[in-house]
Amino acid sequence: MPGKTSELLPLLLLGLALGTQQALPPPCPSLVYCHGELLHQVQMAKIYSDDKEFVDMPMREHPDQVLQRFRSLSAAHNHSIPRDKVKAFVTESFLVKGQELLPWTPEDWKESPQLLYNISDPALRAWAEKLHKLWKDLGKKVKPEVGMEPERFSLIYSEHPFIVPGGRFVEFYYWDSYWVVEGLLLSEMPQTVKGMLQNFLHLVRRFGHIPNGARVYYQQRSQPPLLTLMMNSYVTRTHDLTFLRDNIETLALELDFWAQNRSVPVSLGGKTYTLNRYYVPFGGPRPESYSKDMELAETLPEGSRETLWAELKAGAESGWDFSSRWLVGGRDPDLLSSIRTSKLVPVDLNAFLCQGEELMSSFYIRLGNTTQAEKYRKLRDQRLAAMQAVLWDEEQGAWFDYDLDSGKKNTAFYPTNLTPLWAGCFSDPGAPDKALKYLEDKQILNYKRGVPSSLKNSGQQWDFPNAWAPLQDLVIRGRGRRTPWVWRVYDINQGQPGGGGEYEVQTGFGWTNGVVMILLDLYGDRLTSGTQIALLEPSCLAGALLLSLLLTFLPQ
Predict the structure, then answer these.
(1) How does pLDDT run across 301-345, given as a tens digit for each residue?
(2) Helix (H) or strand (E) segment spanning residue 163
(3) Which DSSP letter does residue 448 get?
(4) DSSP letter for each residue of 379-444
């Protein structure tokens, strides 16, 4: 098929130009949802305010027919189709988004999990009951026709139902799902969790890794690798060793993907260490943010555009899309066009992988395979030594991202600087106390409404004054501090919905619900509510309010 080959060739060449380490997963082949003239003309016509709208729309018929009609239309207008005709073509050829999914009520949802009885305050318990019910609103299952005619859909078929984040995100996402899983297990819904794990394991077997989310246009990139940790949470609750035994090799396959495609050598003090980075060596604009990526690229010389797009995808792979964290050391660290994600060795990624290696070792011990257990123990020890040598700063008492170009640490504050504590991957027994002093020195504990994503107000979503639920969890459970800091994304100055970035604050929201449940489980017997708490819906709270405004922590 010459057309497809010619359009894929630039991407393959880019992989070579960016220094591909191993055989790469194939780029998404779709000439509708991933790259090509149709995608370009539709997205640049800006029919929708959100580029994600179009790439989530199913085709009414086989893509060959859609593409044939498009090529005829494009040729008739010298490859510059008027906007009204582009809009008419989309209406004629595509269905409204969401057609491939059905609402689903989890079969293992029950009225009163034990978590609710552990909450002392009646008003807080009533609010938590409403939060628990939100799982039913976020449940989805894929229509069978997606599996029978996958070429018509950008959605990747999943056999088992799942919980989505909410809002514009109607498919499941990788790292979001860790906190969703934790919340579901606290809601005593292990069958729902098992189905979600089966979906993820299927993706690993199919693609060799877990894409960013369940869409074909996310196939080029992954997200923070937490599958092994999800499996551990499930097995700890259910003792389902048969499921673990049946899927242990798939868990190993996912860690292999990160080792083979995201590793980078770091030479320091006469030694060379191997650590990991976020790295997506495929260019082209992100399909779900196509027009924004194109417009951003127009601010750069033509020869720099493919690299920009690859770095934007690496930033999306990090989950921090986007943050000044990835702009440090660029031409102008105030501009998103300076993004250089792949040039930084992130603390959180390496802590997650360290934890994954430790869990794999413990899994193999439980399954009686001492050889594989020893393999992962050695990998964990090697990574621990590398993190200590490259990322740890004894003077400040924290870990910092390492800049591969400058050979220096980025000593700016991010909650991820303490991820090794959350992951249990540190060698200095005094690290927790040193980390507390670090937080005090940076005056982070003075923010009464939570931990900011950074201390720089860049206008990006993962920067000050926004705060995100998973980052609160990294600090709270990492340090073990009994502090009711919670929320999904909010302004830590005002306790209002967060702003900036590529999309508005969304309702739902899966991982926020999970983090709130984790904290209610830990501290529910010592938290009391304000008088307003029973009057507010959890879905509204998730968008607009901070739990710490409503809760008063009782001293021990």
Answers:
(1) 999 999 999 999 999 999 999 999 999 999 999 999 999 999 999
(2) strand 162-163
(3) T
(4) HHHHHHHHHHHHTEETTTTEE-EEETTT--EE-S--GGGGHHHHHT--S-TTHHHHHHHHHHHTTG
The whole-angstrom separation of Cα 253 and Cα 66 is 36
* Residue 157 DSSP one-character state: P
Judge contact between 94 and 60, C-beta under 8 A: yes
Element containing residue 310 per DSSP (H, E): helix 305-317
Could you please report the per-residue DSSP string of 27-96? Answer: PP--TTTTSSHHHHHHHHHT-SSSTHHHHTPPBSS-HHHHHHHHHHHHHHTTT---HHHHHHHHHHHBPP
Burial class of residue 243 in the structure, from the number of CB atoms within 10 Å of its CB (0-12 exposed, 13-18 middle, 19+ buried): middle
Domain boundaries, given as residue ranges, for the chain: 2-97+280-317
CB 384 within 8 A of CB 425: yes
Q: What is the pLDDT of residues 358-400, one digit of tens each?
A: 999 999 999 999 999 999 999 999 999 999 999 999 999 999 9
At residue 480 the predicted structure's pLDDT band, cuts being 50, 70 and 90, is low
Distance of CA 113 to the CA centre of its chain: 28
Which among 255, 183, 197, 265 has a CA at the least distance from the CA of 222? 255
275 with 382: CB under 8 angstroms? Answer: no
Q: Any idea which residue has 């997606």 for tokens? A: 146
Cβ-Cβ contacts under 8 Å for 158 (sequence gap 6 or more):
142, 172, 199, 202, 214
**What is the Cα–Cα distance from 162 to 188, expressed in whole angstroms?**
15
Q: What are phi and psi of 215, to 5 degrees?
A: -130, 145
- pTM of the prediction? 0.89
